[in-house]
Design goal:
alpha/beta; 5-stranded parallel β-sheet; 5 strands; about 40% helix; globular
Length: about 160
């Protein structure tokens, strides 16, 4: 499998969970360094209960706890935009050296591929458990999320 110098992983991280951890770890197997993109950064509603600032804190805590901070170039906030091509052009100006996107969001992967940047699909990890909607429902119902998010993230969530 080809090794890339620079890649990007984009997620909403609502909240950060073990599936996100898996994707980032797999991306680091493929890439020397990564950008992490917080998608839908400007959206704050029932389906997106964490602000971009809070999601960035989740990511920073993950990077620190896992000892991989030095392999991350930057954590970017990425606002939604109604035109996919303009969305891509605005983003690529901020990540000019990116060689690959890693993840399984077909909408995002398709945009990158239409612009000549390959997408590496790694497959969802335990999707039946690790889906943001399911985790948010558990949180809303005051149920345990301990098998779905890293313990240090669970502590951060419960502080909020």
């Amino acid at each position: 499998m080809k090794k890339y110098k620079t890649g990007i992983v984009i997620g909403r991280f609502q909240p950060f969970h073990l599936g996100h951890k898996y994707v980032i770890e797999k991306a680091l197997d493929l890439c020397d360094r990564l950008y992490l993109g917080i998608g839908s950064a400007q959206i704050f509603n029932a389906q997106n209960p964490y602000s971009a600032k809070k999601r960035k804190q989740f990511l920073e805590l993950f990077l620190k706890e896992e000892g991989i901070k030095d392999r991350i170039i930057n954590i970017l906030t990425i606002d939604d935009f109604p035109d996919d091509d303009i969305w891509f052009q605005l983003l690529i100006k901020r990540i000019p050296n990116v060689e690959v996107i890693v993840g399984d969001n077909e909408w995002v992967n398709g945009i990158f591929e239409r612009h000549g940047i390959p997408a590496m699909r790694i497959g969802y990890y335990k999707r039946h458990l690790l889906e943001g909607t399911k985790i948010r429902t558990l949180l809303d119902n005051k149920k345990s999320i301990s098998q779905r998010v890293p313990s240090y993230i669970a502590k951060e969530i419960h502080k909020s």
